[in-house]
Specification:
The protein has 388 residues and is of the alpha/beta class. Helices cover 52% and strands 11% of the residues. It is built from 15 helices and eleven strands. Helix 1 packs across helix 10 and helix 8 (224-245) packs antiparallel against helix 12. The longest helix has 22 residues, at 224-245.
């Protein structure tokens, strides 16, 4: 017997809804040709987000690249030189920024990274003027020093000197006048260590509108703790709702009544992780978990899970689900699904497709479910203490 297709449609709908709630984070990235803008973007977001194909022109000098499955978009100036060309770009950008500000938040520009290559060893007056005029558009502008030589945790003195010179200008940048020193690509001969990426992510999250912070956290690929916090909020909400569903004990045969709550949780967890995997594959992955238990419906799956893990549950016909059991099973499912998503965000598209089509997805889910069930009291206390 095949799995009831209705829940798959529900998951797709809920996942689309959760992604829509998260929205989209848009970054404008500026800098001379060759400063490493694309490398920096792709290091933070872990995918070919920045100009690797054809973008959508928004001005003569600027294109917009939106990832088809990650909640991020990049406005990229095509590499400018200072002087008259820079002035022209600024005029066109100002018009475009103002126009977008009148529309939906997902279409607006939320922050600017102005990238300066550390190897240039100078920051010109025209560059300072460009930054000042960008900030006058009422956008948070962050100066990013790129390709910074780092070895054994020590930054090259020339990069430190350039950063100090930029800071001394007191430009209206955020979160302060000091540039953020980064290296986004390892080169064993020149810059053998990454640096500054977490600092850039933290600074960007600090200065952007709160309404798009969830999109930034979902899209980025370097800080899993941010994703975990967001996913745990979804689990906490679902465990509370599940307990409410069973405030009056629910016959175990009616366990499917819990699934709308849990379905929403699963969708919210995947959205929080920003998994760049087609949602149809996520549906198939959870379907394989259910089918592997021998169940043909979600109700039977939940009932079987409760009978298996809850002491004294006995048989499907002789047990009722109380609030504590409902919230604990929901919590364990949430952590099991977190484990699957956490594996996915570390994978390439090819690795993710292979993982979702294998027993590995079921094994990861079940192992994390068992661990969460064993430690359910501790985990429940932890998610209650996590800040909103």
């Amino acid at each position: 017997m095949g799995l009831d297709p209705g829940w798959a449609e529900d998951f797709q709908r809920r996942f689309d809804e959760e992604r829509a709630k998260i929205g989209r984070f848009n970054i404008l990235i500026c800098g001379k040709t060759g400063v490493g803008k694309s490398t920096l973007i792709n290091a933070i977001f872990g995918s070919d987000v920045a100009p690797t194909g054809n973008g959508v022109p928004v001005t003569v000098d600027t294109e917009y690249f939106a990832h088809d499955r990650l909640p991020v978009g990049v406005f990229d100036t095509k590499g400018f030189e200072t002087g008259e060309h820079g002035d022209t770009i600024l005029e066109r950008l100002g018009v475009e920024i103002s126009r977008r500000r009148q529309g939906p938040i997902n279409d607006q520009v939320h922050a600017v990274w102005y990238v300066v290559r550390s190897g240039d060893r100078r920051f010109e007056d025209s560059q300072a003027g460009f930054v000042t005029r960008l900030a006058a558009f009422d956008l948070p502008v962050l100066i990013v020093l790129s390709q910074v030589p780092v070895r054994d945790g020590h930054i090259h003195p020339d990069a430190i000197e350039l950063a100090a010179a930029i800071e001394s200008r007191g430009l209206p940048t955020q979160p302060g006048p000091a540039p953020i020193l980064t290296n986004a690509r390892v080169d064993p001969w020149v810059t053998p260590e990454l640096c500054g990426l977490h600092e850039l992510l933290d600074a960007t999250a600090e200065v952007i509108p709160a309404s798009v912070r969830a999109a930034l956290e979902a899209a980025q690929r370097i800080d899993l703790q941010r994703k975990r916090r967001r996913a745990k909020l979804a689990i906490r909400a679902a465990t509370t709702a599940a307990a409410g569903t069973c405030a009056v004990p629910l016959p175990i045969a009616d366990a499917a009544a819990l699934f709308p709550v849990q379905m929403g949780m699963l969708a919210a967890v995947s959205a929080a992780y920003g998994v760049p995997t087609p949602s149809s594959r996520l549906v198939q992955a959870f379907g394989s978990i259910v089918m592997a238990t021998g169940a043909s419906t979600i109700g039977r799956y939940l009932a079987g899970t409760i009978v298996k893990f809850v002491p004294g549950a006995g048989s499907v016909t002789g047990f009722v689900i109380k609030a504590g059991v409902a919230s604990s099973v929901t919590l364990a499912m949430g952590y099991g699904w977190m484990a699957v998503n956490e594996r996915l965000v570390r994978m390439t598209d090819e690795e993710a497709a292979a993982f979702l089509g294998s027993d590995g997805v079921k094994d990861a889910f079940v192992a994390a479910f068992r661990d969460a069930w064993t430690n359910r009291k501790k985990l429940a206390a932890e998610i209650e203490q996590d800040p909103q």
